[in-house]
Amino acid sequence: MNALLKSTNLNKSYRIDANNEQQVLFDVNVQVHRGEFISVMGPSGSGKSTLLYNLCGMDRRSSGSVQFKDHTLETLSEPQLARVRLDEMGFVFQQIHLLRNLSIMDNVLLPGYLSKRCPRRLIEERAEELLNRTGIASLADRSITQASGGQLQRVGICRALINEPDIIFGDEPTGALNSKASAEIMELLTEVNRTGTTILLVTHDVRVASRTHRVLLMKDGRLVSEKALGPVADGSEEVTEREAVLANWLQENEV
Amino acid sequence: MILFRVLKRDLRRSRGTMALVFAFVTLSALLMSGGAGLVVTLFGALDALFEAARVPDVVQMHTGDIDFNRLDRWAASNPMIAAYRTDEMITVDGEALYLGDRGVSEDESVMDISFVRQSETFDLLLDMENRPFQPQPGMVGVPIFFAQRDDLQVGDPVTLRTGELKMELTIGAIIRDALMNPSIVHSKRFVVHEDEYETLRREIPETEYLISFRLREPEKSEEFIAAYEAAGLPKVGTTLDKNLFRTLNALSDGIVAAVVILLSALLMVIAILCLRFTILASIEEDYREIGVMKAIGMPARDIRRIYVAKYLAVALLASAAGYLLSLPLTGLLARDITVYLGSPETGALVPVAAALLVFAIVVVSCLIILRRFRRISAVAALRSQGIGERGGAGGAPRLRRLKGLGVNVALGLRDVTQRLRLYGLLGFIFFFAVFIIIVPVHFYTTITSPSFVSYMGIGRSELRIDLQQSESMDERFRVLEAALAQDPEVSQYAALITSQFTLFRENGESEIIILETGDLDRFPLDYLQGGTPETSEEIALSYLNAKDLGVELGDTVPLLVDGVRKDLTVGGIYQDITKGGRTAKGRLPYDHDSVLWYTFAVDLAPGVAVADKSREYASRFAPARVTDLAGYMDQTLGTTIGQLQMVTIVAIVLGLGISVLVTALFLQMLIRKDAGRISIMQSIGFSVRHIRRQYQTTAIAVLALGLLLGTIFSNTLGEKLVSFLWSFMGAARIHFVVAPVKAYFVLPLLFAGAVAVTTRITMSKLNRPVGGIK
Lengths: 255, 774
Description:
The structure holds two protein chains of two kinds. Chain A is 37% helix and 25% strand. Chain A is built from eight helices and ten strands. In chain A, strands 6-7-8-3-9-10 form a six-stranded mixed β-sheet, sandwiched between helices. Chain A has a four-stranded antiparallel β-sheet with strand order 2-1-4-5, covered by helices on one side. In chain A, α3 packs parallel to α5. The relative contact order of chain A is 0.17. A ten-stranded mixed β-sheet of chain B has the order 3-6-7-5-8-4-2-9-1-10. Chain B is α+β, with helices and mostly antiparallel strands. Chain B folds into four domains: 1-54 and 246-388, no CATH class; 64-236, no CATH class; 408-453 and 638-774, no CATH class; 471-622, no CATH class. The chains are: A alpha/beta, B alpha+beta.
């Protein structure tokens, strides 16, 4: 089976000054299959976020290749990359990054309107349905300053889903939330994944990672290990067990 | 040392803005110094010229015989007189005079040309070194007006051809004539040697006298004029005094100086607005640091001081640079002054003071803006995210409602409504730029349009025929009128007679006014108030006359009519910028001896060529002066139109330049400010092109607003401003004639193009990978 997203010998360095560069990714090879729910773990500065931004095309790799569906990302121009992100990818961030000057509903509608792949009516229906599904329909016309962190992250997820992307990238999507809101968001993402959307997220939270199918471990810019957990069955008893397994694995890898 | 780090970073961060502020302050100081320098040069040169020419305090022009004995006796007995003289002038018809070797006579010139001898005592005609010109036989001194117009040099030929006489002269000097220098004075004196003068006198019978007085107390000229009049001495002609000479000489350059100073004030406002924007932006960015500094106990005064120091330094350097640059500018602006009036020895004090004024205003504005520091609370600063953009989506329509616009255009437009205060600065500058362009453009269109005659106290006719003061004037008037009445190619004409009347002021003093009678209905005038006098009980006054006399419509003014004092009702007030703006019209019986000139306004039958008819009448009725309307206006307003054209071009360049600069600066700051928003949009799939379109939409929308307001204000306030400036010359209510294509299509297009290109170039900085979202 062909991978949905695949990196081959991905390297990334940043220029520090005229003579010095710092390499943050070293020959990373990742394969993400359709329908998977994957998390990337690792200590601070291990390069996990850099990996995410290089896989989604927001950052440009130094060498190596990233293949997403039939696109080779490094060959695409800036507008082409923007188009791919708009139509085929979704994003959820720790800081949520909603536009302050738009209402909650408008934030969700924005990528849909920009994409123009569907008529406005359809986008609006879909947005309403998404807000309903995530339980924030009553907030639609509010300003984003009038909602809690957990609610805002739901808005972020709705926005990520509006163009029915193949994959959602998450950069610590629960990082700024309390444990209750965090659990609810993971619940929501699990549900989104069950409907067929592939998810790749970066986290340092074992409880978050334990809900994903596969966990990748980054250290010093290298992919050092991975752990397959498989999908979570219905019911939460299993979760504590998965957390324990993961914690052990991390300890084995000296994290 | 945290202070200096803040300062250093601030300077690095706002390099562009500071450069712009520097440029604006420099320009403002440049223009302010230049304008002040111009004023100083103007009045210095004027004083020097008046001194060298020993200008008389009062001049009475007179046509006809003079009882010299009587005049001498009166002068000897009048204690006010320090010196007096009568000078004879030979009036030469323009047709007879050929300047240079172009072979073209002066028959179309509106100037009254006379030939004189150099005076020995006062009222001297000076050469370009301000020395009295003493012509050798065969030499002639040519007024600077003609020398400038035709680029005449010393050594060029001047030929006089009239009747049997053919006189070849050589230009011995270009003449500065303190009385008759400016182009708005329609009399010009040529100076020749005694020998040629005698020859001319034998051939040309028309003479005129200048009776000039130097007074012991020059400020009492009005009193003296009244006494002169009361004595019944020769006065068939205009009475002039030194103040009028000064005003006439200073007029056109004075207007240029006023415009330059006004422009400087405008630039200063822009500089201060930019400063405000920069200061607020940097305070916002340093909000936390300022909070920290306050929290650790640093007094607000100290924090403020570092900012003050920065702007003080910039303002000082810029003002100094402006002053230095103004030195060559003043030379350039004062070129006309130097040519017409001479170059005076002027001190640098006033221009320096002007530059210092700009500096002081900028610094004080900074201090006022920086007072905001006091209001920053340490706690609020540490806890908040900044003092800038507050709130959420309020005030703007939901994206969902903005259908059919495209997401980016919709976002751009929403942004304008959401951050109105922020965009206000940009809008204000666009507004200013549009205003300073459209007002001169409108005024230029107005002053060059034929309807401008309504500000010159005359009705609109195709031809004007002027018969000037001469002994046979009455006779020629009758002949000409008969000819016009019989000419089938003349569709209608009106005879107008201008003569002097004595008017009594409230305080019992009397003065002379010039009043036009005759067929006032044929070529009607546009009146400010009221209309043409209908009976001999009514009078119409020019705006300046009415203002001077303090009368309004319906008031009465007492005039001496047929030797009897008669109260006339003011039935109309009209605008007139000619003859010092002081004229009147009425249906009064006039005294043939006090007639100054006759004028015919003539319209031709359809299909008759104006130029041909003009030539025909000029030769048939020489020395009558025949001009078509365009020619008359061009000769009267030519200099002003030329200057206005320059002002207009400068305004266009300046306005567009300011718009481009400020747009670039503003967008740069905005991109920095909006960095977060931009990277969010890029991360969810907006391309650089999309984002650029948003900002382009915003900029164009703000520009459209500025254009709209600028145009509205130009047509209302601008009209009032121009009217106010011109009210000093006699036209208090100027209505703009608008060239719609130029003003409402070409100019906006020019602006939109400039702004769009600037946005495009400035936004090209966005062309880089996303990043920074974390």
